[in-house]
Structure formats: C-alpha cells, structure tokens
From TrEMBL:
Gene3D superfamilies: Aspartate Aminotransferase, domain 1, Type I PLP-dependent aspartate aminotransferase-like (Major domain). One of its GO terms (cellular component) is cytoplasm. This is Methionine aminotransferase. Keywords: Aminotransferase, Pyridoxal phosphate, Transferase. Residues 32-377 form the Aminotransferase class I/classII large domain. It comes from Paraburkholderia solisilvae. Pfam families: Aminotran_1_2.
C-alpha cells in the first residue's frame, strides 16, 4: 500500500541504515556475526532471576518518569566511588530507554534551530541526524585514521558564536580510541568561559584495555558542570535488548532533558530497572569487564594475525578497525558485501560512520561475541 499524501521528509539524505541492510544479507548467507555491537552470549543468570522476581513481585507498571529510585540511588553511589562526583538521584540522574534515547533527549532539549554541534567522525550514527532534526548544523571534525588522535587545534578553529554543543565519545565507537589527559585539558580550555554544553557518550566506560584509564567528564568539576554524560547498562550487563541507559547532568540541564524524555518514552521498563539496580550495587559485576573484553579483543586479533588485514589498535569499546585497501580496490560497502557472500562473515563498512560517506578502505569488526564465533570469523577472514 502507498499513501496518496504529500510528504516532505525531514531526513532527505538518510534511508534504511546500512546496519539493517547488513543484517538482512547476513541472515540470507547465515554469516558469522562480526558486525553487530551486541553480545551473542547470555547475561549472568542472577540478572535474569532478578528480572523474573521483579515481575512476579508486581513491578510491571510504569516507573517514575525519572526512573526507579533504587537504581538512581545505586548509580549515585557508583559514580561517586568511581569518579568522585556525587549526583543528586532526584534532580540529576535520569533512567532512559537506552543510551540512544538519552542522546536524543539531550540534543532535542538543549540544541535549537541555528545552533552548531561539533562531533568527531567516524561517529556513532545517531548524532548527525538528531542534530539535523533540531534544525541545527552538524559540524563534523575528522579523526585522522592514520594516527587516531583528535586535532584540538582544528576543534578550536571550528568553534563559532553559534556553537552550542560538543559531542565526545570515549571509549570511541568505532575507532577504539580513548581520551587521555591532553584531550581533557584541551576540551576544558576550549569550553572555558563559553556557553558550550558537552555531551559525553560514555557507554563503553568499563570496556577499556591496555592499562588505560577511563576519563569520565564526571571526574572533572569544570567539565562536569557543563556536561551531560550518557551511560548504558545494557552494554555493561550484556542486555542491549533491555534498553536501559541513563544520563547524569547538573539539575538545570536535567530538568530540560526530562521534559523531552517524558514525551519520548516516559519511562524505561520497570522490572528491568529493578533487576539492574541489584547488579549496580555489586561493583564486581562491572569491574570484571575490562579483562573479559580485553581477552575477546585479543582472541579476534590473534585469529586475524595471519590474515591480509591491517588492524588498528583498539584501546576500548567492542570494536577494532581493519584496513584492506592495500590488497583490494573495492569500496568498503562492496568489500563488506563480498565478505558476506564469499566468506560468510558480516562486518560493517567504516564509511557508514560518516555523515556524507567517505572512502576509508576499512571495515569495523565487533568482538563482543563468544570465543568460537571470534575464532571462526577470524579463520574465514584469513582465507581471503
């Protein structure tokens, strides 16, 4: 059926995401899933049991718009312990339907028509279209793929009187880079004495490797007072389908974000919030993630050690970049499709992480998979 109505699209340059296209092809060819940033293994049974118990106990209706109190209180203690800043669970912490909803609500609440928003490409696909939906101007800054370091001089030059927000993502999807002291110092200097809001996407806060440290915006008072920091409990507890995230921010920013949040979803699933609250109160439930995922990264990189791919160092997130342009002339989308059809391995072309596309000669591989999947995917790719 087709409507006879006249419709003017709000996102004329966007169609069905490449993620959906890859998913359809992967299903057709029964491909090894190295494309999706979602685990293929089960969460801890204690978490499943807690969710079941919460449902049986009657936690099946809407929670407070702000989120279940016990979860917000547990998060207050967690952030204070890890990052030294105590957020008020009543006025500064909001439970959302995943990290993406928190990002959308934040941009919709705090960015208006004519504003400019700086972010770093390659970038998580949500940022750019959400900025456009507000009538604002996306200002992408390229992360050089040969050295994977942000050029803060370029960022400073991109700031104008219309700059309302800078979006940072650490650990970074898809490159795996992690912000370091010099990055924090540069961001602080650029935003000092300005009206710029920092939106910090920190959903991979516990997935960080090689002895590196997660530098949360929560940790730095001068940044914390202008930052909205987004986290994902789905990523932390291997339950991405539960759609449980949260954001923390000063009370005046939080008040505006909640105005949007209440009309998007009102609340995240109540029994799942109750279940996750118990896990948050057990530090060992997230402290073990560093070693867990570092081992998975190493399994995949070892499985690819005899392949023709050149891997970029990944210090965090679920992902590693692999370059192929030294042995193939295909663009990255066609190359990823070739891997699906000929090798039965699903990957993501890096160009999809750029607002207007970019030929990178790279693909993104996900290692949040069971060991057998990682080894089999590496084996197949090594036959190329």
């Amino acid at each position: 059926m087709k409507s006879s109505l006249s419709i003017e699209t709000k996102l004329p340059t966007h169609g069905v995401s490449v993620f959906s296209q890859i998913a359809a092809l992967a299903a057709r060819y029964n491909a090894v899933n190295l494309w999706q940033g979602a685990p293929n293994y089960s969460p801890d049974q204690t978490l499943i049991d807690s969710a079941t118990e919460a449902m049986k106990a009657g936690f099946n209706q809407y929670s407070a718009m702000t989120g279940v109190a016990t979860l917000r209180e547990a998060l207050t203690e967690k952030i204070a312990t890890l990052y030294g800043t105590r957020y008020d669970p009543e006025t500064e912490i909001t439970i959302t339907a995943g990290g993406s909803e928190a990002i959308y609500a934040t941009i919709a609440a705090l960015v208006k028509q004519g504003d400019e928003v700086i972010f770093f490409e390659p970038a998580f696909e949500v940022y750019e279209p959400v900025v456009r939906l507000q009538g604002a101007k996306p200002v992408p800054i390229q992360i050089p793929l040969d050295r994977l370091k942000i050029d803060w001089n370029e960022v400073a030059a991109a700031v104008t009187p219309r700059t309302r927000m800078i979006i940072v993502n650490t650990p970074h999807n898809p490159t795996g880079i992690v912000m370091e002291d010099e990055d924090i110092a540069a961001l602080t200097a650029i935003t000092r004495d300005s009206n710029i809001i920092v939106l910090a996407d920190e959903v991979y806060e516990h997935v960080i490797f090689d002895g590196m440290e997660h530098r949360s915006m929560c940790r730095y008072p001068e940044l914390a007072e202008r930052s909205v920091v987004v986290f994902s409990l789905g990523k932390t507890y291997h339950v991405t389908g539960w759609r449980i995230g949260y954001c923390v921010a000063p009370a005046d920013l939080t008040s505006e974000i909640r105005k949007i949040h209440q009309y998007l979803v009102f609340s995240a699933p109540t029994p799942l919030q109750v279940a996750v609250a118990k896990e948050v109160s057990r530090p060992e439930s997230y402290q073990r993630l560093r070693g867990f995922y570092e081992q998975k990264r190493d399994i995949l990189t070892q499985a690819l050690s005899t392949s023709r791919f050149k891997l970029r160092p990944s210090h965090g997130s679920f992902f590693v970049l692999a370059s192929f342009d030294h042995f193939s002339d295909l663009n990255d989308f066609d190359f990823a499709k070739q891997l699906l059809v000929e090798k039965g391995v699903g990957t993501i072309p890096l160009s999809v992480f750029y607002g207007h596309g970019a030929e990178t000669g790279m693909i993104r591989l996900s290692f949040c998979k069971d060991d057998e999947t990682l080894r089999e995917g590496g084996r197949r790719l090594s036959t190329l």
